[in-house]
Amino acid sequence: MRRPPSWLIALSLGTALVAGATPLAAQKSAAPDRTGTYRFEERSGADVVTQGTFTLTADSVSVDAVPGPCRYSPDSRPSGPIIYTCGNTTLSFDRQNPLARARVTFPKRVVETQRVCRIFTTDSRGQQVCSRYDYDQTERFVSTTIRLRATRVGAP
Fold it and tell me: What is the pLDDT of residues 55-95, one digit of tens each?
């Protein structure tokens, strides 16, 4: 069997590569354009945790939020999310899908009630027993992360 000329093989391979690349290019251009300015306000109960705007461009995110000022975090790595620290909150944006995978981390106040003995007495066997209990409330802060919900308000 006779082998086809090399120029015919190269032409066939080139045509196949171009034909194969066309659907990918069409899919890429059909993807929704997410660039723009977005407004957000996140609450924890009645308290507003953070509010402000962020702007997405093709390759970056900029943030203006309260509490502020917002600063690009040195914890941002090329393989991880884009991170901004705004006061006591942290905003993070996924590099592949920054709008759908935006997160806000904030300290949430948790109040705990604890039963405490106020008065001890000694029983008939000489053991210390509690004769009066009270309840004390203590508060602590827990780091909480939620999805950042945003509404588009304009073009970049």
Answer: 998 888 999 998 889 999 988 888 899 999 998 899 999 98
- In this structure, which amino acid lies at residue 24? L
Record the tokens describing residue 77, joined without a space: 């790595």
In sequence order, the 6+-apart residues with CB closer than 8 A to the CB of 125 are none
Q: What are phi and psi of 154, to 5 degrees?
A: 175, 170
Q: What is d(CA 57, CA 51) in angstroms, rounded to the nearest whole number?
A: 20
List the one residue out of 16, 144, 156 whose CA is nearest residue 89.
144
Using a CB cutoff of 8 Å and minimum separation of 24, what contacts does 50-55 make? 50/86, 50/87, 50/89, 50/91, 50/104, 50/106, 52/86, 53/153, 54/91, 54/93, 54/102, 54/150, 55/156
Dist CA 143 CA 44 (whole Å): 12
Taking the model in full, what pTM does it have? 0.63
Could you tell me the CA-to-CA distances from 28 to 33, 53, 78 in Å, in that order?
Answer: 10, 27, 22
